[in-house]
Amino acid sequence: MTIPAKPIRLYRHALSGHAHRVELFLSLLGLPCELIDVNMVRGAHKAPEFIAKNNPFGQVPVIEDGDVAIADSNAILVYLATRYDSTGHWLPRDAVAAARVQQWLSVAAGQLAYGPSMARFAVLFGARLDLDRAQAIGRQLYDVLDGYLADRHYLFGDTPTIADIAIYSYTAHAPEGGVSLDPYGHVRAWLARIEALQGFIPMRSSAAPEPV
Ligand SMILES: N[C@@H](CCC(=O)N[C@@H](CS)C(=O)NCC(=O)O)C(=O)O
Asked: Judging by beta carbons within 10 Å of its beta carbon (0-12, 13-18, 19+), is residue 138 exposed, middle or buried?
């Protein structure tokens, strides 16, 4: 495996699941990194110098690997797997396998972002959005995912891929947005498999709301 000449800089927020998926993957790959907390309360993510890091929407996470700056968590996972995982197991090179992994990256940027992630954003940070709708999207997602994982260890293939990493963080923390994982035993077993991987690091927990 290739190792970067200098630690990879990860601009993040400690409660961001998008940032956590990158931090987790860096740790699983055993890559040296430097964490830089972005003061989002003060709007540091919208500062021109932060947007200049190939980050047109002014969001976390962003990484800097030498002269290369990459924004967007899933784009970063693709970059890190392609650049540093010589085994190819985190992002298969085969056309069909790569497409299967991409399918789940799209779910991470779709149903997961608009469901459990948004619900958590509303509950923890008081964001004014449709909480009921976000929670419903989350339940629909886990209804499907639970069936899908009934006879699978990982989202694609016999070993974990970046698809699992992209879906992990906001799923593990879905209860913080009022989306209970109690009904979803296969999803919980899959979470436990990710948490058992060598190099796993958790995201900081925030209080889950009381069940209604
Ligand atoms: N598609 C982006 C979404 C990242 C994202 O939504 N980041 C949030 C924090 S979790 C953010 O920076 N929000 C501030 C904003 O959008 O202005 C990714 O996957 O990295």
From this structure: buried
The residue assigned the tokens 């459990």 is: 116
**Which residue type, as a one-letter code, is found at position 200?**
F
> Using one digit for the tens of pLDDT, what is the confidence trace for 61-74?
999 999 999 999 99
Q: Best substitution site from 11, 18, 74, 204 to test ligand 1's pocket, by max atoms within 8 Å of Cβ?
A: 18
Q: Are strands 62-65 and 68-71 parallel, antiparallel or unpaired?
A: antiparallel
Q: What pLDDT score was predicted for residue 153?
A: 98
Q: How far apart are the first and last CA of the chain?
A: 48
Q: How much is the average pLDDT of 91-99? A: 97
List Cα–Cα distances, 31 to 27, 133, 194, in angstroms.
6, 38, 18
